[in-house]
Design goal:
It is a single chain. By secondary structure, the chain is of the alpha+beta class. It has 2 domains: 328 residues, no CATH class; 113 residues, no CATH class. Strands 1, 2, 3, 4, 5, 6, 7, 9, 10, 13, 14, 15 and 16 form a 13-stranded mixed sheet that branches. It is elongated and about 85 Å long. The relative contact order is 0.11. The N terminus is likely disordered.
Length: 473
């Protein structure tokens, strides 16, 4: 329990305190970061290269990932942010030939419809199942007048957040918290460069940093806790959060946190005692020559950031990263998406219809126990892709009955219901094939053998209470 608390607390401290301190370099780094974050209208670009060890991917060789992002943003009003960017991703040299556009506007997140073709191409290049190529092609034909897919409504993402304060007010509040809560603390991680500041974490100095940080917090726990509460009060006062259970009450949250004060003090003392044992230095040895370096700089009107790092565990290189970003102040006008759009739900429905038509299921595998109420169904499509799920079924006079519409439409059949005669049919052109069965909870259930009327081949085996069957088109 103690070690779990230690791990959690260290992670939180590293996350929130890596820029803390009040020495000249820390303040310089913090001020330049604040300058960058205060830009509310700007253009940006980023280039990132990653290499991931085959030990992680399970492939025959290391994987290389290249990401290119460029665009513009306007966050003057956090409640109505605007973002327009192009994204290109390549894995081992293969990736989207045309950038996928992502737009945040009108309180929605959009992606350009060419993501369908690009994802389909990636699947083909790397040989994994997902979008069927022919189905994706037919879907794009259906969407010839549509430009964007609505991925999400912003209000649906973790509830609704409304900001009462300007973006820069929140930044200043964060800066004030760091300088007040950690005044006098020297991270010893940040250095001045010709155009900015750099911060480098190695396996060794990261442990030393955490040791200094824990010691500082242990000796100043009342100050750190008080400033943290004050900062959270400012944040909650600046935002209104509405979730599933209504508005979050600031007073209740702060009171609950205040009630954790003694637990916080006790945990800090436990962590400090643990660090006195020196056990934490064993982890530095395991991470060997791992490092991550982050540099921020300003050249003229351009702010930049360079990141590079490598993860080495017990002398094995697991991966590395290099990233270059630039951000430049620019007037950016908010714009609405006026082109025709389709929601993700509508897109999935369209894909399902087209998939059943152009990449239908040719085999259904079934397995069940006579004591069960659900049958385990595997639907195998023409291209070999398989989908598995549990489906309600019924046992009548020792025979298994399955929902006709579920099975029939999976095979690409058209199923119709004649309400007057209480019968279901499979329609093929002008032919109507009567599928006798029984109505259970408004669903027509038919015997597995009834699918022989459609020309399907039925295979069936039973051993004690366990049964398996196949329906092949």
């Amino acid at each position: 329990m103690v070690k779990r608390k230690i791990s959690l607390f260290i992670a939180v401290l590293m996350l929130f305190s890596v820029l803390t301190g009040c020495t000249v370099n820390e303040l310089g780094y913090l001020n330049m970061s604040s300058e960058i974050n205060k830009l509310t209208q700007y253009e940006f670009k980023n280039s990132t290269q990653m290499e991931i060890s085959k030990l992680i991917t399970g492939g025959e060789k290391n994987s290389k990932i290249d990401v290119e992002i460029s665009g513009e943003a306007n966050i003057d009003d956090i409640n109505a942010m605007y973002l327009n960017m192009d994204v290109k991703i390549k894995v081992d040299g293969k990736g989207n030939s045309e950038p996928v556009k992502m737009i945040m506007a009108d309180n929605k997140i959009y992606v350009s419809k060419n993501i369908i073709a690009e994802v389909s191409k990636l699947q083909e290049d790397f040989g994994f199942y997902g979008y069927n190529g022919l189905v994706a092609e037919k879907m794009l034909e259906e969407l010839k007048d549509t430009e964007y897919i609505v991925v999400a409504e912003m209000d649906d993402i973790y509830g609704s957040v409304s900001y009462k304060e300007n973006y820069t007010v929140l930044l200043e509040s964060a800066k004030e918290y760091l300088t007040n809560a950690f005044k006098g603390f020297d991270s010893k991680l940040i250095k001045k460069t010709s155009n900015g500041y750099s911060m480098e974490l190695t396996a060794e100095n990261a442990v030393e940093f955490v040791e200094r940080l824990v010691k500082y917090v242990s000796e100043n726990k009342e100050l750190v806790f008080d400033e943290t509460i004050k900062y959270l009060e400012n944040i909650y006062a600046a935002v209104e959060i509405k979730g599933m259970e209504g508005t979050v009450e600031t007073e209740e949250i702060i009171a609950e946190l205040e009630g954790m004060r003694e637990d916080f003090y006790d945990t800090i003392d436990e962590i400090a005692e643990f660090f006195e044992t020196g056990e934490q230095r064993l982890y530095a040895g395991m991470l060997d020559r791992s490092y991550i370096k982050n540099e921020i700089y300003k050249k003229g009107r351009v702010y930049g950031q360079s990141i590079e790092g490598e993860l080495i565990y017990e002398s094995i290189i697991f991966g590395n990263i290099k990233s270059e970003s630039e951000i430049t102040s620019k007037t950016v006008n908010n714009a609405s998406v006026t082109e025709k759009t389709i929601s993700v739900e509508e897109l999935e429905e369209l894909y399902g219809v087209l998939e059943n038509k152009y990449n239908p299921v040719n085999t259904v595998e079934l397995s069940w126990n006579s004591n069960d109420t659900q049958v385990f169904v595997g639907k195998i499509r023409l291209d070999g892709a398989a989908e598995y799920e549990y489906v309600q079924f019924a046992i009548i006079e020792n025979r298994a009955y399955l929902p006709l519409r579920y099975i029939g439409e999976a095979f690409g059949e058209e199923v119709q219901w004649d309400d007057a005669n209480k019968k279901a049919y499979v329609v093929r052109g002008t032919e109507k094939i009567d599928m006798t069965g029984t109505l259970i909870d408004s669903a027509t259930m038919v015997k597995i053998r009834d699918f022989e009327k459609l020309g399907y081949v039925i295979g069936y085996e039973q051993e004690y209470d366990y049964s398996t069957a196949t329906i092949t088109k």
